Amino acid sequence: MKSYLILILASFLALTGCKPKQTTLSGQVFIVTQGAENVKLGDVEILLVEKSQATDFLQKKQSAIDLEMASKEQDLTNTEQEVAAASGNLDKAQTYFDWFMVNKPYKTNADRVKISSQWDILLKQYIYQTNYVTRLVQNTNYDENSMSTLTAAVNRREEIAGKLNSLNDELETIKSDAIATEKEKLEALKANLVKANSNLATAEKSLTNSPTTEDYFSDFSPAIAQKTISDSDGKFSFSYPPDKSFAIFARAQRAILNKTETYYWLIDAPTGSKAFQILLSNNNLVFVDPDGYFKLKPKEMPQESSAQ
Question: Domain span at residue 111?
């Protein structure tokens, strides 16, 4: 008799269309700034998706993330070796340059040796010619012939002096060119070290800031169980079956001067036949990952410049 009554009651409930009680969820999206200001985020698309879709997607995505992280770690190792090599080369070059400036090996340059020899010969000629002019000045009676001889001697001395100056310029050019060549080599190695350090900084930054939210979610397109949009106060609500595992996924952006901040949330949706309230805020961003969706938590994306 009791079983019969239960069957009648069940049939009655079926006929009257009684449905299991739903999970009701209300929430709000906001960000707390560094100045402790609460910024409500309206017009944010908030998705209710089956949790298995999110976890399956992230599990597959993790393989690509692991490969990318391994590649970035190898890049870092390579650039560290690049810096070490560039630094070693520069130290050797600096040591040689210091030795070069002290020992002046350009003095053994074949052209310089030849010019130096010519300069020495001309210098002797110049000294001789200068002494000759001096004797003429002391002994001349300054008649027409003696003045002509003196003038010719002085002109010859000036001619030799001009050649000496010309040879001296050539010697200085060889010297300055040799020093400039070594300086160029040194500066090139300094530039290589600067470039290597820049590459190292880039590799370190890339590894430190990886994986990013975009690495994970750029191609995340799950089947949507429900979708809603937050209102001007950042508020939203859902009603869904109490016995299914859902996840809440949301993405929001906020312009700050000429920068744009991007926020992602992926958290478990509450289960059970009652009303719940959640807040999408700094405390449960994907960088925090309160429900453990990620093997490697996403890193906060650097702020991007807004279009001017």
Answer: 74-208
Give me the pLDDT at residue 197, please: 98
User: For the segment 188-238, what is each residue's pLDDT rounded down to a tens digit?
Assistant: 999 999 999 999 999 999 999 999 999 999 899 999 999 999 999 999 999
Residue 39, classed as helix, strand or coil, is strand
- Reported pTM: 0.71
Same domain, 223 and 134: no
Provide the sign of the torsion angle of the four alpha carbons 42, 43, 49, 53, taken in this order: negative
What gap in Å lies between CA 47 and CA 220, rounded to an integer? 12
Identify the sign of the CA torsion 226, 230, 231, 233.
positive
Report whether 94 contacts 188 (CB < 8 A): no
Inter-residue contact 200 to 82 (CB < 8 Å): yes
Q: Torsion angle of alpha carbons 143, 146, 150, 151, nearest 10°?
A: 60
- pLDDT tens digits along 48-95: 999 999 999 999 999 999 999 999 999 999 999 999 999 999 999 999
Shared domain for 198 and 147, answered yes or no, is yes
Instruction: Render pLDDT for 143-153 as a digit per residue (tens, 0 to 9).
Output: 778 888 889 99
Integer Cα distance of 102 and 200 in angstroms: 35
Q: In total, how many domains does the chain have?
A: 2
Given 156, 181, 208, the domain boundary residue is 208
CB 250 within 8 A of CB 44: yes
* Residue after which a domain boundary falls, among 162, 190, 208: 208
